[in-house]
Amino acid sequence: MDYDELIQLFKEGSYRALSRAISIVENKEPGFRKIIAEISRTGGNGYIIGVTGPPGSGKSTLVNELAWGYRSIGKRVGIIAVDPSSPFTGGAFLGDRVRMQRIATDKGIYIRSMASRGHLGGLSAAARNVSRLLDAFGFEIIIMETVGVGQSEVDIVKAADTTIIVSVPGLGDDIQANKAGLMEIGNIFVINKADLTGVERVEMELDKIIKMAYHSASWKPPIIKTVASRGEGITELIEAISKHERYLKDEGLFSQKRRGRIEEELVTLISDHLFEHFSPKIEDKVSLKALTDKIINHELDLYSAAEAVVESILKEKDKGGVKIET
Amino acid sequence: MDYDELIQLFKEGSYRALSRAISIVENKEPGFRKIIAEISRTGGNGYIIGVTGPPGSGKSTLVNELAWGYRSIGKRVGIIAVDPSSPFTGGAFLGDRVRMQRIATDKGIYIRSMASRGHLGGLSAAARNVSRLLDAFGFEIIIMETVGVGQSEVDIVKAADTTIIVSVPGLGDDIQANKAGLMEIGNIFVINKADLTGVERVEMELDKIIKMAYHSASWKPPIIKTVASRGEGITELIEAISKHERYLKDEGLFSQKRRGRIEEELVTLISDHLFEHFSPKIEDKVSLKALTDKIINHELDLYSAAEAVVESILKEKDKGGVKIET
Prior knowledge:
- The structure is a homodimer.
- Chain A is an alpha/beta fold.
- Chain A has 13 helices and 7 strands.
- The N and C termini of chain A lie far apart (51 Å).
């Protein structure tokens, strides 16, 4: 389908058009800028929920149940599952395919896997663009799910309106440690698989962390116990999310958070565009090879080399030639 | 201690100076550029080994044993352990402190934890700078250890001369899936805890992946079985690493890989420096707030906004004023 047709079908609510648009935006294929410009004319109404936690915490099941919970109160739900997947599997694991089969029968839920790697301009930017598409498509709830390890992955859930950190009893210390870096970004803590032994210990630990990290915060993250595989605790979780949404809106933090997010993205894009503007000049006129030789031979350090390149580009910009002594 | 004293002590082999220098470089404190310039005059002799695998695979024990193995053949070993740690714990977990106590008695092994988050210019760049410091300090083996999830974390081990992917029998599918994205970057596969049941299954899976992903590669990754907690398989692992090193050097790939790494870093730094050069102009003269308003009100999309800013900066550069219609 051509571009105008794609946009038209997207607006008419075609899931095929949505999937195609996401692929274009995710891979920055030709036309991606046009699509972003087009969808930026609408949207902004979807509520974004970030869900993260260690492998084995049952995140996917929890997210599925959360989606069904919202569905039962009439909301349309879009899910972005960021997986550290392989190029071999094309971004979808067996588990995901099973998830999609079950969910595909309901037109009110859409699930999309994103690979963790290989995104020009960064994973976080790509995920936000996909979230923007889901928003423009009309999903009222957008859930972004990531494994809670890794800087880019955490950046994704941090950008949500409400961020949920999932813990689970009985994982080894090595695994629980992965949560540590997440603790300061959680708005709601979930202990999933709360029917397992050891739930009290996890609760005590979380309690301690909340007291420590949030002692001066006006929002104290609640701890919600769930057994996602049996749908237990989901209603309570949805209630906690609503409460957090009301808190954000009452305090004026909702739009403030979103403003901050957009400003941050804008600054990153400006940086990218600047580099794009200058990079042909770098490639054509500066001998990166010669500079690399100098660095390898200990005649120059990386930072001084980079500085020299930038100075030359800026100085010689309008004179049509950049020359670096090599 | 002042800067000259620090450099002097570093050169004399003071571990205290090394630790201080790493902190300065890691946090980009004042003087970090000077330190990088200074240490770039030497080094380049350390062999860099990347070790990654899922939580619970016993990576830390394996890395410790590997370090002792190298120590027993007279090599000095520096370890960089990248952990998705918390600001609360200051980057070191209990597990790390235990490791450090045991290792601190041997002056030939140095271990440093790095937090996964909060690095200006990226985790991967920070880790490479720390590795450069260890190299200049005289460590012949540098081991970079990360949890094998997350883009930045994988970038770190990818930059090693030899990359080791650790698997383990009996982890759930959810956890094993995390390995998938790593498979194409492994030079050596280790099955740790090889005394557990299920080791044959993991071996078969790895075999399949190697056949698929490396069928046209001239280096076929060997599979080494270890029980790190008992020191079993470590000699075989060191032998496999040596073999890979010889392969890289015989094929001319060793210096090629290192060149590529430096060129890549150079391009990233050029981009950073360009942005640094222009960012005061952006902050002073462009109303990011007004642009953000337009984006929120659906009058402008992010990409067009960024483009407009860049165009204005470049056009008005020498005229002393940037104005964007808002």
